[in-house]
Amino acid sequence: MTAQVSSEASRVDVFQGEVLAEVRNHIGHLTLNRPAGLNALTLDMVRSLTRHLQAWADDPQVHAVALRGAGDKAFCAGGDIRSLYDSFKNGDTLHEDFFVEEYALDLVVHHYRKPILALMDGFVLGGGMGLVQGADLRVVTERSRLAMPEVAIGYFPDVGGSYFLPRIPGELGIYLGVTGVQIRAADALYCGLANWYIDSARLGELDQKLDRLHWSESPLKDLQGVLAKLAVQQLPDAPLIALRPAIDHFFDLPDVPSIIEQLQEVTVADSHEWALTTVSLMQSRSPLAMAVTLEMLRRGRRLPLEQCFALELHLDRQWFERGDLIEGVRALIIDKDKAPRWNPPTVQALDPAHVESFFHNFKQSGR
After folding, report:
1. Is 56:108 a contact under the CB 8 Å cutoff?
2. How far apart are CA 226 and CA 213, in angstroms?
3. CB neighbour class for 367 (10 Å; exposed up to 12, middle 13-18, buried from 19)
């Protein structure tokens, strides 16, 4: 079954599958509809989202788009990594097609001519972050948990992570990408990974206001006006504010072994517990994935958006054969023994030349 896109703002079309689509009051609503799987993205979902966004971009009756996830657990917990693992193991090409089309979808969001409102309730991980970071209005709730946790399964933060993470002030984005740590609403606002906060109990009220919205010549301002009545743009007590000086110091060090070594030496009381927790987290991650992530993010800081996606695709095309993803998925998702055999097994065994080899032959446009 294929989704039928409405060309009339008054008509509702719903594709009863993994993506629900309808147009109400000139807003195209797209709902990721795999709640039992935390709305993880499949290739079919990527294609359905792309079709709807492309159709609505040219539909004068659609003034804006709203993205959300079904259920109250997650907006989107990333890509359906098990299907990509199976594709590689079976000698298929799904895992290759998925990244090409997922990145193209994320670029559509970044360049969309109409405002996109992303309701980031619950988990927003990996591919979910890629889907929302190009949106104009990114709304979090008290249930939001944001992360680029790819290093936990031996991968690197893709879907534009090489662009939006290093553009967070200081070294906060490097910290988020290299460790894969989760953050909540206040930190998401502080980092600029979200720009509005609303209590989840008021999401229904937000929908009602959107359904009754009287549009002007500026749809973006109209949506901002609705949010201003229900939401706020800052929250007090973001934990990363206090940690920022330490993060800026440690995650500006030359390499992953140096970061871990110096974190282990922290004795200052207000940073000691955080440093120990961070070291413990990093010691569970793939050393190779962390090292490649660090290099990728530092390169991405100097690259335009399209080149960041090109760099990530360049890494993708090597990673299933040369990286730690297959072993990470085996240990954490397939066998669930939680004992991945990373290669190399420790950060001390990292070879800088091997890390650098993943970036060989990457051609930047205009060079």
Report:
1. no
2. 8
3. exposed
Tell me the helix, strand and coil percentages in the chain, rounded to 5: 50, 10, 40
Task: Give the mean pLDDT of the chain.
Answer: 94
Domains in the chain: boundaries: 19-147+181-230, 253-357
User: Does 225 qualify as catalytic in the annotation?
Assistant: no
Question: Which member of 28, 69, 126, 127 is catalytic?
Answer: 127
| Residue from 158, 171, 295, 324 carrying the catalytic annotation | 158
For helices 269-283 and 256-263, angle between their N-to-C axes, nearest 10 degrees: 140
Is 127 an active-site residue? yes
Could you tell me the pLDDT band of residue 363, with boundaries at 50, 70 and 90? confident
**Token pair listed for 285:** 């991650």
The residue from 59, 102, 150, 324 that is catalytic is 150
55, amino acid identity:
A
Q: Look up 128 and say whether it is catalytic.
A: no
Q: Which of 28, 79, 154, 160 is catalytic?
A: 79
> Hey, what are 242's tokens?
């206090």
Active site residue 173: no
CA gap 75, 68 in Å, rounded: 6
Q: Give the pLDDT confidence of 1-35 residue by residue, as tens digits.
A: 222 233 333 334 444 599 999 999 999 999 999 99
3-state secondary structure of 12: coil
Indicate the SS3 state at residue 70.
Answer: coil
The band of 219, judged by pLDDT with boundaries at 50, 70 and 90, is: very high
Note whether 115 and 65 are within 8 A (CB): yes
Work out the number of other CB atoms within 10 angstroms of the CB of residue 310: 17
Query: Distance between CA atoms of 297 and 166, rounded to whole angstroms?
Result: 6
Q: The CATH number of 19-147+181-230 is which of 3.90.226.10, 3.40.47.10, 3.55.50.30, 3.40.50.1970?
A: 3.90.226.10
Structure tokens, 197 = 């906060």
Say which residue, 215 or 367, is predicted with more confidence. 215
Residue 117 CA, distance from chain mean position? 15
Tell me the Ramachandran region of residue 82: left when phi exceeds 0, alpha when psi lies from -120 to 50, beta otherwise.
alpha
